């Protein structure tokens, strides 16, 4: 079976589904087909992350990531409110517990303010007003950080995009047709032809790129995070983070309240034996 479309999107995580959603809103009448190898949306990173709506306080001012994070945080809160998706703007506390962390905490204040994010500096006596059980030498409160259910966000995007979303459709061959777009064959033998292909395959994106004849010149090394569940979630009101350590490319172990009321403690960073 061969189908014609305008845009083929590979991957029904939040990136692929938001791409389809944006295309359908910006270009009414466009035909978008999303191919997803799983039997439903958000089966990998999108449905298994911390659920945090990040404010952008960590990112270099003026960078694409900073602009996307600050704008995206506000858009995500509005999207959740409009569609009745569980969410909350909890705010986040970043706490310094050692003197060597104080210059890095101050640098975050500067970054946050340059990114247009409401950041408040706190002394030791002010910390309990936000988190009664937290202690530290200093802290900052980032008001725009929130939480939501990204699995539900993905499902709403899928329902609202007007795209033809095909689950159980794993791409196994991609053919570029000179001047005529691309053809993507799924493992069930279905072929979808489109003018444009958008690769949103997450941890499989390098493999999809190679199927399309590209060399991404990169290697994906997967890590996974392990969490504990806090037995007494009432100890934490919102989100509590350490000051990031520049020796590690991660944000460190933190306390994250979810929309279900539970609190995760973690993550660590463990080299994964597989991508999924």
Model description:
The protein has 276 residues and is an alpha/beta fold. The protein has two domains: 2-46 and 152-211, 3-Layer(bba) Sandwich (FAD/NAD(P)-binding domain); 88-147 and 223-271, 2-Layer Sandwich (D-Amino Acid Oxidase, Chain A, domain 2), CATH 3.30.9. It is 25% helix and 28% strand. The protein has helices spanning 14-26, 64-83, 102-114, 127-130, 150-160, 205-211; strands at 2-4, 7-10, 32-36, 52-53, 87-88, 92-96, 119-122, 138-142, 146-148, 164-167, 171-177, 181-186, 191-194, 196-199, 223-224, 228-229, 239-242, 254-257, 263-266, 270-271. The strands form five sheets. Strands 7-8-6-17-18-19-16 form a seven-stranded mixed sheet, with helices on one face. Strands 1-13-12-11 form a four-stranded mixed sheet, with no helix packed on it. Helix 1 (14-26) packs parallel to helix 5 (150-160). The longest helix has 20 residues, at 64-83. The chain is elongated, with a radius of gyration of 21 Å. 35% of the residues are buried. The mean pLDDT is 94.
Question: In a nutshell, what does this entry contain?
Answer:
The protein contains 6 helices and 20 strands.
* CATH fourth-tier homologous superfamily of the largest domain: D-Amino Acid Oxidase, subunit A, domain 2
Number of distinct beta strands = 20
End-to-end separation in angstroms reads: 30 Å
What is the domain tally? 2
């Amino acid at each position: 079976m061969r189908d014609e479309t305008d845009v083929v999107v590979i991957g029904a995580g939040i990136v692929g589904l938001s791409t389809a959603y944006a295309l359908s809103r910006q270009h009414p009448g466009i035909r978008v087909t999303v191919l997803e190898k799983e039997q439903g949306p958000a089966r990998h990173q999108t449905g298994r992350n911390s659920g945090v709506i990040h404010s952008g306080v960590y990112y270099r001012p003026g960078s694409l990531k900073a602009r996307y994070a600050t704008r995206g945080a506000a858009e995500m809160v509005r999207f959740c409110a409009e569609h009745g998706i569980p969410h909350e703007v909890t705010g986040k506390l970043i706490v310094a517990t050692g003197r060597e962390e104080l210059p890095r905490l101050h640098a975050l204040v500067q970054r946050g303010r340059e990114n247009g994010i409401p950041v408040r500096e706190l002394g030791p006596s002010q910390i309990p007003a936000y988190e009664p059980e937290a202690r530290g030498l200093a802290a900052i409160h980032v008001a725009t950080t929130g939480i939501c259910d990204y699995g539900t966000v993905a499902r709403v995007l899928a329902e609202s995009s007007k795209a033809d979303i095909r689950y159980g459709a794993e791409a196994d061959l991609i053919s570029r047709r000179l001047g005529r777009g691309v053809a993507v064959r799924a493992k069930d033998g279905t072929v979808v032809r489109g003018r444009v292909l958008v690769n949103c395959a997450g941890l499989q994106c390098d493999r999809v790129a190679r199927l399309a004849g590209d060399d991404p010149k990169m290697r994906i090394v997967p890590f996974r995070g392990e969490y504990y569940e806090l037995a007494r979630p009432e100890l934490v009101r919102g989100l509590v983070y350490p000051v990031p350590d520049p020796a590690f490319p991660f944000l460190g172990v933190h306390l994250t309240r979810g929309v279900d009321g539970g609190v995760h403690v973690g993550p660590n960073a463990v080299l994964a034996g597989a991508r999924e």
